[in-house]
Amino acid sequence: STIAPFIVNRSIAVRAPTLNAPKPTPAILKNGLEHYRVNCITCHAAPGIKQTELARGLNPSAPKLDSKVTQGRTDGEIY
Fold first, then answer.
1. I need a labelling partner for 31 at 20 to 30 A (CA). Which of 1, 9, 22, 38 fits?
2. What pTM value is reported for the model?
3. How many CB atoms lie within 10 A of CB 44?
4. Rounded to an integer, what distance in angstroms lies between the CA atom of residue 77 and that of residue 51?
5. Cis peptide before 60 (omega within 30 of 0)
6. SS3 category, 69
7. 1 pLDDT higher than 70
8. Following CA atoms 64, 70, 71, 75 in sequence, which dihedral angle do they give, to the nearest 10 degrees?
9. Cβ contacts of residue 49 below 8 Å, gap of 6+?
10. Distance of CA 27 to the CA centre of its chain
11. Phi, psi of 60 (to 5 degrees)
């Protein structure tokens, strides 16, 4: 369906915070990886990690964070 992605994109455009990610340092990267492992991997997966049953049931599906579309978003939109 094309309606769900349209609604998601409009919601992101209207509600995304204006922010810029901090410059990566070893501590920030470590913290970010831990945060991703605990909070994000269930829906977004990761290289070498199979998609979970929960993620397969999402509609719309969780975006691939390494896709051109996602990487074309601002830091606030990705957040």
1. 9
2. 0.70
3. 19
4. 23
5. yes
6. helix
7. no
8. -120
9. 41
10. 21
11. -75, 160
What is the token pair recorded at 50?
């199979």
DSSP secondary structure code for residue 1 in this structure: -
DSSP result, 10-42:
HHHHHH-----PPPP-HHHHHHHHHHHHHHTHH
pLDDT digits over 48-77, tens only?
999 999 999 998 888 888 889 889 998 888
Neighbours of 37 (CB within 10 A): 12
Phi-psi region of 41 (alpha: psi -120 to 50; beta: other; left: phi over 0): alpha
Cross-strand bridge partners of residue 45: none
**DSSP assigned state of 45:** -
Q: How many CB atoms lie within 10 A of CB 4?
A: 11
Sequence-distant (6+) residues with CB within 8 A of 55 are: 42, 43, 44, 45, 61, 62
